[in-house]
């Protein structure tokens, strides 16, 4: 009995710390941190689903390690963005980690379970098969069938606003974003025409996602 009580005493600070981190993340999402970081929901929505009209990405259900790396890269200047850099820089390392876990655990909004719209033939072809005459692999070879994402290095594309996907492809293409594994995305993006970028982005944005749970 004494051993159990001693173990519980050791675990209590860890449990309390996890609870405090979750509470802190929820507060930052709704109110900011009072140190320069704005409320996350102002751009990424109350449900973490992003904003299609403005191209702000979905965060709900994304891999925690991927989210934390992006926040860290914004904070240290590895990834450039005029909105995210000052906000991420105003967050402590613990706050960035807490936010990554918070959004990773957030269920996908039901609206992402919508049926896929009529696919764009060019976008579908490039997304699923690529064009090997240009050494261009299909996007799903890294981002998984349907674009649901794989782990910390290959985020989901399905359910992201088309404008966001387009903006990232242009950033890879122009070299203003370069935090990809082995420069894979820079190679891929440089092979695409503006019309192809638009077609691929539109195809992935139209793909449905499960209504509940986290991104696989």
Quick gist of this model?
This is Cytochrome c. This protein is mostly helical.
Q: How is this structure best described in words?
A:
This is Cytochrome c. Keywords: Heme, Iron, Metal-binding, Signal. It comes from Rhodanobacter humi. Residues 20-107, 118-208 form the Cytochrome c domain. InterPro entries: Cyt_c-like_dom, Cyt_c-like_dom_sf, Cytochrome_c4-like, Cytochrome_c_Oxidase_Subunit. With 216 residues, the chain is mainly α. It folds into 2 domains: 2-106, Orthogonal Bundle (Cytochrome Bc1 Complex, Chain D, domain 2); 111-205, Orthogonal Bundle (Cytochrome Bc1 Complex, Chain D, domain 2). It has 10 helices and no strands. The radius of gyration is 19 Å and the shape is globular. 36% of the residues are buried. Mean pLDDT is 89; it is low at 11-19.
CATH second-level architecture of the largest domain: Orthogonal Bundle
What's the count of strands? Answer: 0
Text of the CATH class of the largest domain: Mainly Alpha
Q: Number of DSSP helices?
A: 10
CATH level 3 topology of the largest domain: Cytochrome Bc1 Complex, Chain D, domain 2
- Main beta-sheet strand count, sense and barrel state: none
**What's the SSE pattern?**
HHHHHHHHHH
Mean pLDDT: 89
Number of domains: 2
What is the gyration radius calculated from CA atoms? Answer: 19 Å
Distance between the termini: 41 Å
Low-confidence stretches: 11-19
Helix percentage? 40-55%
Portion in beta strands? under 5%
CATH superfamily assignment of the largest domain? Cytochrome c-like domain
Protein structure class: mainly alpha
Protein name: Cytochrome c
Pfam families: Cytochrom_C, Cytochrome_CBB3
Keywords: Heme, Iron, Metal-binding, Signal
Domain Cytochrome c: 20-107, 118-208
């Amino acid at each position: 009995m004494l051993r159990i009580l001693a173990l519980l005493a050791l675990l209590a600070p860890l449990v309390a710390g996890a609870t405090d981190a979750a509470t802190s993340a929820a507060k930052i999402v709704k109110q900011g941190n009072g140190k320069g970081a704005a409320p996350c929901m102002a751009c990424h929505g109350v449900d973490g689903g992003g904003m299609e009209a403005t191209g702000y990405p979905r965060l709900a259900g994304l891999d925690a390690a991927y989210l934390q790396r992006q926040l860290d890269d914004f904070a240290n200047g590895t990834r450039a963005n005029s909105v995210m850099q000052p906000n991420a820089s105003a967050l402590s390392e613990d706050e960035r980690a807490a936010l990554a876990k918070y959004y990773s655990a957030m269920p996908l909004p039901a609206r992402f379970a919508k049926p896929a719209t009529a696919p764009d033939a060019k976008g579908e072809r490039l997304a699923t098969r690529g064009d090997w005459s240009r050494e261009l692999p299909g996007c799903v070879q890294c981002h998984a069938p349907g674009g649901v994402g794989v782990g910390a290095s290959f985020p989901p594309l399905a359910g992201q606003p088309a404008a966001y996907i387009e903006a990232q492809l242009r950033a890879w293409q122009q070299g203003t974003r370069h935090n990809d594994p082995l420069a894979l995305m820079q190679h891929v993006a440089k092979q695409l025409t503006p019309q192809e970028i638009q077609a691929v982005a539109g195809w992935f944005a139209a793909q449905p996602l499960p209504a509940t749970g986290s991104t696989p």
